[in-house]
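Weekend entry, working from home. Most of the wet-lab plans are on hold until the incubator is repaired, so I used the time to fold the two sequences that have been sitting in the queue since the last round of cloning. Logging both here for the record. First:
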Amino acid sequence: MKGTVSKQTRNNWLIDAAVFVGALVAAITGVYFLFLPSGGYQGGRNPMYGITILFSRSTWDNLHTWFGALMIAAVAVHFAIHWSWVKGTAKRMAKSAVGKGARMNRHGYFNVAVDATVALSFLLAAVSGVYFMFVPGGGRAVDPLFIFTRTAWDLIHTWSGVALIAAATIHFAIHWNWVTKVTVKVFRSLSPLGKPVAQQTVAEPIEA
C-alpha cells in the first residue's frame, strides 16, 4: 500500500527528524552568537550590545545548549543504527584506494567526502560544546586550560559549527528526494489504516 512504511523506516525517519530539529535550532542560535558576540561598547567589539532579538541572550544560550544536546543524542543513535553501513563504506573505499575492489565514481567519492566532513565537524562541535557545558566562563572564572585554552575551544566550536552547517546543507540537498518521499509516506502512514489521505476523502458511491 502506497501510504505505508516499515517500522524500521519510520524509526529511522523519527531519529533523523530529531537530528534535523536539534541541528536547525542549534545552527540558528549559533549564527546568533556568531554575529552578536558578548563584548560591549567598551571594547568596540559589539555595536549591537544590549539589543534583544526575539529572546534574551540567556534564552538563546539555553536553546543552543539543549537543542545541541538533543542533536548529539540523536546523532549517537543514528550512528549506532548505521554502523554497519559506515564500516562497509570504509572497507570499500580502502579496497578501492589500493586497487582491490570496484572503484567508486565521482558522485560516490563526493558523497563520502561530504559525509566525512559532516562527521568530523560534528565531532569537533559536539566535543567543544560539551566542554562549554561543564566549564564555566565569564566574570573572573579561571581558565582550566583543558588541552586548549578557552579561547581555542571557542574558535574550534565556532568554525566547526560553520563547517557543519555548510556540509549538512549539502548532505541534505543530496538526499532531498529521499527526505521528501519518506516524509510523505510517514505522514500518510499516520492516518487510519495507513491509507493515503487523498483516498480517505473520496465519498462512497450511493446505491441506486
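Second, folded right after the first finished:
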Amino acid sequence: MSTRWKTLKRLYLPVLLATFAGATAMLLLYTPVEATMGPVQKIFYVHLPAAINAFLACLVCFLGGVGFLWQRKMKWDDLSAAAAKVAALMCTVVLVTGVIWGRAAWGQWWTWSPRLTFSLLLWLLYVVYLIVRPSIESRERRAMISAVYAVAAFLDVPLVYLSVRLMPDIHPVSVEMDPAMKITLAVWFVPMSLLTVGLIAVFLAAATRRRLKRQQRREEASWSLATPREQGLRPGEDQVLQVARSGRP
C-alpha cells in the first residue's frame, strides 16, 4: 500500500466528521427558516444529497454488473455488491426523510405518487439484491445472476428522476431557495458524497479480503489432496508428506 493511500485512509474519518459537523452547524445556525414549512424544511438539505448519492451508488452497482458481464472477473462482482449495500442505505435515508417532509408539506406520511412509488421500488430492488445473493452457493452463478440483476435494477433510476417531469405528481420538480439555503445545500453534498464513496470503498475492501481468503483456503486444500507427483515432490519426499498428513511423529 502506497504512502499516499495510507495518508488518505488516516485523514478520511476526521475529514468526514469535520464536514458533517460543519454542515450541521450551518444548517442550525446559518440557514434561515423557511416561511411556509418552518424548521422541518431543513430536512431537505439531507434528503436531496442522499437521493443524488443513492443514484451514484446505483450507478456504481450497475457498472460493476456490466464489468463482470464483460470481463468475468470477480473484482467487478465485489464492487457491485459493495455499491448495492450503499444504494440500499441511501435509499432508506431518502425514504425516511421524504415521509417526514411529506407529513409536514402535504399533511400525510405517504401517497402513491409516481416519484414516491418508483423510489420505494428502487429501495426494494436493492434490498432484494442483498437478500438473494447469499442464497446462491456457486460463486460464478451468484456473480452472473447479480450482474444481470444490477443492470436491470438500474433501469428504475431514470424512472425516479423523470417521473415528476413526465407525469402529474405531488412531489415538487424544484424548490425555491434563497442564496443562504443554496449554499447550505451545496455544503451538505460534501459529507454525504464522502460517506457514500467511503462506504463503497470499505465494503469493497472487505469483500475482496474475504474472496482472497476463500481462494487461498481452496488452493491449500487442493494442494494437500494432490498426489506427490502433482506436487512436484522428489522420490522419498512423498513418505514425509504422508507422515505429516497423518499427524504421526
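Plan for Monday: verify the second prediction. The radius of gyration is 25 Å.
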